[in-house]
Amino acid sequence: MPPEGQRNVPPVSMEIVVPARNEAGRLPDGLAALCQKAAALPLRTAILVVDSASTDPTSDVVRGWPEGPVPVRLLRCHRAGKGHAVRAGLLATRAPFVGFCDADMATDLSALDVAVSLLAAGNPVVIGSRMLHASVAEDRHSGIRRAGAAAFRALASRIVPDATDTQCGFKFFSGPLARAAALPMRTAGFAFDVELIARCQRLGATLTEIPVCWRDVPGSTFSVARHSAATFRDVASIWLRLRAGRAAAGRVPVPVPLLPAGLQAPPAGVPAFPAGVPVLPAGVPVLPAGVPVLPAGVPVLPAGVPVLPAGVPMLPAGVPMLPAGVPVLPTGVTTA
Ligand SMILES: Nc1nc2c(ncn2[C@@H]2O[C@H](COP(=O)(O)OP(=O)(O)O)[C@@H](O)[C@H]2O)c(=O)[nH]1
Ligand SMILES: [Mg+2]
């Protein structure tokens, strides 16, 4: 079924999928924050909320969303499961760049600026990781959930060793790559990220992890009691399926474009995101490409104060500037 929502929307460069199940409570704030952020991105962006099997008015929140600069559409998916929802959402996209984030926007959206610039620089998979040094994670999860998460990470690292945090709900991709990787995906539930990352890597893409500010938002749809066993079972079957797939595929690479047409991968060996670079605080824009960062300690000029033309020396400290209209004396001429 095609997504519902604004028709005749001009093509966009980025589509963001938001999986949502029984999110009528958290979605309005999350969607408002995402729309505001998306409107300020340098890429024209649309949002696609995928609601599956909600028993609350999640779909009505999306249907009643006011029209604005960022189109918001709804896709209804009959099969429950975050994995099914994200897969259906990604397969309904067409944009050169795509991604997904959770309805609660637990990952601070300042990371979107970083993700967009890395995608535009030719990095095909950009994912948030709460495990990087520069990340800030405000975690109020129970001890048992934290222990389960550590065990899950250990297991997932057998499949995707390069990913330090497969479960952060903030992942962005080159569109053609994400659609090709999502097509054969089978994981219905919360472990789907492992399969998606593994399939992107299998298609030849490298991962770029970025630090994030993440805060736990009350109202999680993950229940340790209901979802843990299935999540661990799913990782085991992803491992088995990918192993079987590798054996069947032999060594013949599948020709899938890793990047949108016209983009080139960055030169090999250049780190996309140097370790230790802090996440920008919310609201601080990333500088446009080519604008140099000021050296530490150099103050930013107040608005309206012109920069001196090249070659004009600055006055030594303590020497007052002449008032406007008072001519400077020619060299050699002194005042009486
Ligand atoms: N469409 C859909 N979305 C789901 C389903 N299960 C979870 N989600 C969404 O996946 C995201 C998971 O985030 P959250 O519940 O905050 O989990 P946590 O942050 O890992 O505790 C939320 O946006 C959920 O609404 C599902 O069955 N269908
Ligand atoms: Mg959450």
Draw up the topology in text:
Elements: E1 4-5, E2 14-20, H1 27-39, E3 45-52, H2 58-63, E4 72-77, H3 82-91, E5 97-101, H4 111-120, E6 125-129, E7 136-138, H5 143-159, E8 170-174, H6 175-182, H7 192-202, E9 207-211, E10 213-215, H8 224-249
Helix pairs in contact: 3-6, 5-8, 6-7, 7-8
Bound molecules: guanosine-5'-diphosphate and magnesium ion.
Put the structure in a nutshell.
This protein has 336 residues and is an alpha/beta fold. The protein is built from eight helices and ten strands.
What oligomeric state best describes the polypeptide chains here? Answer: single chain
CATH classification class of the domain at 14-218 and 225-249? Alpha Beta
Strand content: 5-15%
In the sheet with the most strands, the strands line up as 1-4-3-2-5-8-6-9
Give the fraction of residues assigned to helices.
Answer: 25-40%
Secondary-structure element order, N to C = EEHEHEHEHEEHEHHEEH
Q: Uncertain runs with pLDDT below 50, 5 residues or more?
A: 274-303, 305-310
Average pLDDT taken over every residue: 84
Count of β-strands: 10
Q: Helix count, per DSSP?
A: 8
Predict the CATH topology of the domain at 14-218 and 225-249: Spore Coat Polysaccharide Biosynthesis Protein SpsA, Chain A
The molecules bound to the chains, other than polymers, are: guanosine-5'-diphosphate, magnesium ion
Backbone shape = globular
Can you name the CATH architecture of the domain at 14-218 and 225-249?
Alpha-Beta Complex
Largest sheet features: 8 strands, mixed
